[in-house]
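Methods — Computational structure assignment.
A single polypeptide chain was analysed. Its primary sequence is given first, followed by the predicted tertiary structure written as structure tokens.
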Amino acid sequence: MAENEQSLPPPAVRNTMNRIMGTVLRTPLHGVLSGSLMLIRFTGRKSGKTYTTPVGYMQDGDWLTVFTHSTWWKNFEQEPQVDVLLRGDWRSGRAHAITDHTQMMTYVDAFIERNGVENLRRAGISPAVENPSREQIEDAARGTVIIRIELDE
């Protein structure tokens, strides 16, 4: 099991936290969380069900970047339309998954530049040491998938 997977809380805890965060993000109190968290709503590629889950994000203009280790990223291989609840407003966009490690690392680098290496855990990347080398960051990021969402106007 990868280190990133070991650091995840048990599914029951994750589900409870996701429900709590999702509830807060839908209320007027969303400002407490919505600077770094949003809801993403998408249709399952096999089930056809609608799913909504809270995710951390970075925004650059009309582009959102989401880091994940969960398998739901596979729903974005065909670049589907998605909705996001971003700072209290529902917006539509097109999402796609970036699985190529080299390309994904450009987004990890942008995260580090914006937030500092000490905040990599917020992206679900957990190097084993406090001041990781580039190689340790790359090893910790293996298995990370980036979801890029281009928001509609």
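Note: Residues 1-6 have pLDDT under 50 and may be disordered.
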